[in-house]
């Protein structure tokens, strides 16, 4: 087909394409959904578990705050990465958030070692949290993927990695809210491991589920 | 005003109208950006032939069409367009490398016998009636793929636009059709 013919075909009866809202606004919409999910799970769990189950220390708030910042910034970065011409260094802020989150857990581990004389690596397995994070990640991540698929898959691997990081950061907060952990290293290994493994897997398979639309059939 | 030299501000306004469904504005934008895209592709991939350049240009236009909702009319059009061109060029480069990995370059074909039939590079079949019958016996999708791609010699993109089938589906249909034809014609030849 000649390029002129293609132009004619594309412009014939062109449909309205309302500009997407700015990434910040789309991030806010996604965060509203995520917070609703968190509140719903917290209310449900409060009904079945003791209110003293989770000990909220200042370090606990730092960890959850860092996870929340990572979620917001990773979602914003993912949504910006599907807008052609946007800043391509968008991943820096979520990386800083994830770094603070990891460091706060390491610091909490040091405090555990001082207080109990052990890091508690073998004291607690955390499969229920892994499962709840996977389910929560799916619930929170699905609308984000839907939003991302309306953009341009310029860097599908990075976008998919950031989306998974955002969704699982929220799911991590939910898992920490609803299940007490005796040692910080348990959270670092099980929660951090889940986030890292799933985000890496999503990054590797990003090209498969964030693709350019097949225009030849439109 | 020459469309290809239209200032960015004018293009941004036209694109905003195109997003609202204005076909005339859209065709003007596409015509104005096409020479710029072609120039960008030529500059960044100097080794590409004219037809390959045109393939990439068309791919960029299709991408622009697919993601036109991502354009923010408050911002200039060219950075948005350049980002699409850059990434589509990278995709084309990856595809080029992938295809190259499955191809073997042959500089000089060995001659086996002097007889012309032994040195023919084409797969030929003389019984055209039998070939026509075999094509008619193919399932409709495979028959259409052979007719468009092998008999009318359309490109995959053109055949895809005509039939509404994806390029992948066309390739599969053609491959299956050729395999079936070989089997049918061998049977006719032998029996």
**Poorly predicted ranges of chain B (pLDDT <50, ≥5 residues)?**
1-5
Main sheet attributes: strand count, strand direction, barrel closure of chain A: none
Average pLDDT number of chain A: 88
Q: Distance N terminus to C terminus of chain B?
A: 70 Å
The count of strands of chain B amounts to 0
The arrangement of helices and strands of chain A along the chain is HHHHHHH
Morphology call of chain B:
elongated
Q: For the CA atoms, what is the radius of gyration of chain A? A: 20 Å
Radius of gyration of chain B: 23 Å
Order of helices and strands of chain B: HHHHHHHH
Indicate the structural class of chain A: mainly alpha
In short:
The complex is a heterodimer of chains A (218) and B (191). Chain A is mainly alpha-helical and 218 residues long.
Overall description:
The complex is a heterodimer of chains A (218) and B (191). Chain A has 218 residues and is mostly helical. Helices cover 71% and strands 0% of the residues of chain A. Chain A has one domain. In chain A, helix 2 packs antiparallel against helix 3 (58-81), helix 2 runs antiparallel to helix 5 (127-148) and helix 4 packs antiparallel against helix 7 (184-209). The longest helix of chain A is centred in the first third of the chain and has 26 residues, at 23-48. The two termini of chain A are 16 Å apart. In chain A, 43% of the residues are buried. By secondary structure, chain B is mainly alpha-helical. Chain B has 2 domains: 3-101, RNA polymerase sigma factor, region 2, helix turn helix motif (Rna Polymerase Sigma Factor, Chain: A); 123-190, Orthogonal Bundle (Arc Repressor Mutant, subunit A). Chain B contains 8 helices and no strands. Chain B starts with 7 loop residues before the first helix and ends with a helix. Classes of the chains: A mainly alpha (218), B mainly alpha (191). Chains A and B meet through helix 1 of A and helix 2, helix 3, helix 4 and helix 7 of B.
